[in-house]
Amino acid sequence: MSDLTILLLLLAVLGLLAVQLARRQRALRGEIALLLGRIDRISEGNFDADLPPAHSPEFGQLSDAISQMAQRLKQTIDGLHEVAQRDTLTLLHNRSSFERSVERQLKKDDGNAAFLFIDLDGFKSVNDALGHNLGDRLLQVVSDRLKLASRIDEPNVAETGSPGDRPEMVTLARFGGDEFVVFLSGSASEPIAEKVAARILRVISEPFELGPHVAKIGASIGIALAGKHGKSYSELLRAADAAMYHAKRSGRSRYEVYSSALDEEVLRIAEQEQELREALTRGEFELYFQPLFDCRTLSLSSAEALLRWRHPKRGLILPGEFIPMAERANLMNAIGEWVIGEAARRIAEFAEAGRPLRIAVNVSPNQLQTVEFIAVVKASLQRFNAPPHLLELEITEDVAMRDVALAADRLARIARLGVSVAIDDFGTGYFPIWPV
Fold first, then answer.
1. DSSP classification of residue 231
2. Burial profile 61-80: b = 16 or more Cβ within 10 angstroms, e = fewer
3. In the chain, % of residues over pLDDT 70
4. DSSP 148-203
5. Residue 141 has pLDDT above 90, yes or no
6. CB-neighbour burial class of residue 194 (10 A; exposed 0-12, middle 13-18, buried 19+)
7. Is-contact 386 417, C-beta < 8 A?
8. φ, ψ (nearest 5 deg) of residue 103
């Protein structure tokens, strides 16, 4: 074979190799494009798109790895989506998820539905006394009991009313804090809703075992019926919430079905709360002083500051009437700050007149828990140049014992200011909790 022939054969072989290499490159580019397209679809949320079989083992392994990654990513996203729909403590629906679910059910339901708004009675005292860990555990047990109490397959629920008069679905949620809601969809009549509410009251009233402690709480429940009390989620929520507050004001541990008469009461309470807010800016609060005499010297030794509200139309209002309203409206800190400032002003006046007098002021639980409390006391004394030793702050035993470490810190810092502290209602055993 001549050299020329060999050269031609080599050129032919090289040509064939070049053609095969070009085909291989085109195939590789195609497979790479398919893999990149799959990754793009995954980034857009399409996790189930399949790939054709790969032409090479290496790309087959890479394709399998991408598929496994897509499935794991899908599971993670599904899990995050589920978490976003749930209350992290109780695993019930959260507020936004509950609202979406109720709105969907209201659109497709032709029958009756019932909305139950539940607020726990006495939970805050338990939470403050035992700490947040046991308080959280109490909420978890409450959610478990609510699930049992709202089951629609129980005989004493299913047998209420006519055979078709029963809910088809129950949606349960925690709104936050100690508020829960139940939505009975399908054909949930008023007797069904009242039966479920009565069962909830019964299971919540039973003692809760929390570690070495036993706690007793209650619940106030408001009921609103779809169609009768509202057609939308917001209307039913407002009605059920108003009924719940009426149940709470009527003695607690009871349920109340919404009625239009409650609108007037809700409006009246809203107006009173607004008047209370404006009372601070209008200067309608007054301090009265209850004197304490020393029987040995027959001299005035101290006085206790008593708060009164001089209403422009109703006259003098005692604290027993407006303090609970102030607590609901979150006004106690502002009112308490005014009381301490006014007491400091009067202490300074008495001292300047040559008649120094110790004045005692009651401190609310909210005041003691705020980080600004010590600064408020200090600023009030400095503003009026009042002698610190003539101010006495009174806290009740239950306030001091709700958070012993916090109370001890606050009282120590108050003492360093030169202000005296007194424990009121000592030994009364205020809490509904006892060791096992």
1. S
2. ebbeeebeebeeeeeeeeee
3. 70
4. HHT-TTSHHHHTSSSTT-SEEEEEEEEEETTEEEEEEEES--HHHHHHHHHHHHHH
5. yes
6. middle
7. no
8. -60, -40
343 φ, ψ (degrees, to nearest 5): -65, -40
- Higher pLDDT: 199 or 408? It is 199
State pTM to two decimals.
0.53
Look at 160 and 206; give whichever has higher pLDDT.
206
Q: Which of 411, 419, 391 is nearest to 304 (CA)?
A: 391
- The pLDDT confidence band at residue 137, using thresholds 50, 70 and 90, is very high
∠ CA 9-10-15, nearest 5°, is: 95
- pLDDT at position 242: 87
3, amino acid identity:
D
* Cα 420 from Cα 397, distance rounded (Å): 16
pLDDT tens string 338-394: 999 999 999 999 999 988 999 999 888 778 777 788 999 999 999 999 999 999 998
Reduced DSSP (H G I as helix, E B as strand, rest coil) percent helix, strand, coil of the chain, to 5: 55, 20, 25
User: How far are the Cα atoms of 48, 118, 144, 293, 375 from residue 176, in angstroms, in the given order?
Assistant: 37, 11, 16, 49, 31
Tell which phi-psi region holds residue 112, choosing left (phi > 0), alpha (psi between -120 and 50) or beta.
Answer: beta
DSSP state of 252: S
Contacts of 332 (CB under 8 A, 6+ apart): 323, 326, 364, 366, 367
Which band of pLDDT confidence, cut at 50, 70 and 90, is reported for residue 18? low
Instruction: Return the sign of the alpha-carbon dihedral for residues 409, 214, 142, 133.
Output: positive
The closest of 277, 310, 306 to 290, measured between CA atoms, is 306
CA-to-CA dists, residue 332 to 291, 335, 368, 423, angstroms: 25, 5, 11, 20
